[in-house]
């Protein structure tokens, strides 16, 4: 398993490198954006750990490049833990976000969780619900044949519904399904925002949803897409 660490703090970078190598990972470390982009162009990595603040740029830009060219998880390592930065990173396609200082075992647990989302076998590359078609191999969604562009978190939320179609899911179950941990970076309000965004992109009438239905007092359920 090959991991790229982009971190300008040499103490943190070396500590991470040593810990990950001890855990069986192959590790490459870069200290700035340009070196990282050069390395990414000539190497294939299974997972990327990116610091947000770099001497010559930002982890956001590296993440954007990775997501445009490769199918692999990205985890941000940063001292910034406010919701604006979290949501911005997720909207760019990041798979997780961990705040410094962090425990190495927690980081490795999150790495394994992110990798499972990419390695999970699917019975078919395509799933159809009503007028929606989801290409799980390419992580693309189509409605009536036209592509619907979802952020990484919106897509992951949709997968949680798809994998539990017809079942009522509580808000806590949705948070757990998104993160595979305790959902500490997403609160109820933020989850509501993402459900609203997803409905706005998938439903013909978001006020009367047929894909992501509200089950009053219990949670949400993915319907079959038929008008009631």
TrEMBL record:
Domain of life: Bacteria
A Pfam family recorded for this sequence: Trans_reg_C
CDD domains: REC_OmpR, trans_reg_C
Response regulatory domain: residues covered: 2-115
SUPFAM superfamilies in alphabetical order: CheY-like
4-aspartylphosphate: residues bearing it: 51
Keyword Hydrolase: no
Residues in the DNA-binding region annotation: 124-224
OmpR/PhoB-type domain location: 124-224
SMART domains: REC, Trans_reg_C
Positions of transmembrane segments: none
Gene3D superfamilies in UniProt: 3.40.50.2300, 6.10.250.690, Winged helix-like DNA-binding domain superfamily/Winged helix DNA-binding domain (1.10.10.10)
InterPro entries named among the record's database cross-references: CheY-like_superfamily, OmpR/PhoB-type_DNA-bd, Sig_transdc_resp-reg_receiver, WalR-like, WH-like_DNA-bd_sf
Keywords annotated in UniProt: DNA-binding, Phosphoprotein, Transcription, Transcription regulation
Function: May play the central regulatory role in sporulation. It may be an element of the effector pathway responsible for the activation of sporulation genes in response to nutritional stress. Spo0A may act in concert with spo0H (a sigma factor) to control the expression of some genes that are critical to the sporulation process.
Name the record gives this protein: Stage 0 sporulation protein A homolog
UniProt organism field: Lacrimispora defluvii
């Amino acid at each position: 398993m090959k991991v790229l660490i982009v971190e300008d703090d040499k103490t943190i970078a070396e500590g991470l490198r040593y810990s990950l190598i001890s855990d069986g990972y192959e590790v490459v470390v870069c200290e700035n954006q340009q070196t990282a982009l050069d390395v990414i162009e000539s190497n294939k990595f299974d997972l990327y750990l990116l610091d947000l603040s770099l001497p010559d740029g930002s982890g956001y830009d590296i993440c954007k490049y990775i997501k445009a060219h490769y199918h692999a998880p990205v985890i941000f390592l940063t001292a910034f833990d406010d919701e604006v930065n979290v949501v911005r990173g997720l909207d760019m396609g990041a798979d997780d976000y961990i705040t410094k200082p962090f425990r190495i075992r927690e980081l490795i647990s999150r790495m394994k969780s992110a990798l499972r989302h990419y390695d999970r076998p699917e019975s078919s590359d395509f799933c159809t619900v009503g007028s929606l078609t989801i290409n799980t191999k390419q992580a693309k969604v189509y409605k009536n044949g036209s592509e619907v562009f979802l952020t990484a978190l919106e897509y992951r939320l949709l997968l949680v519904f798809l994998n539990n179609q017809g079942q009522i899911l509580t808000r806590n179950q949705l948070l757990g399904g998104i993160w595979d941990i305790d959902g500490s970076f997403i609160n109820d309000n933020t989850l509501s925002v993402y459900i609203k965004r997803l409905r706005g992109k998938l439903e013909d009438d978001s006020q009367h949803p047929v894909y992501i239905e509200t089950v009053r007092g219990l949670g949400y359920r993915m319907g079959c897409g038929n008008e009631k």
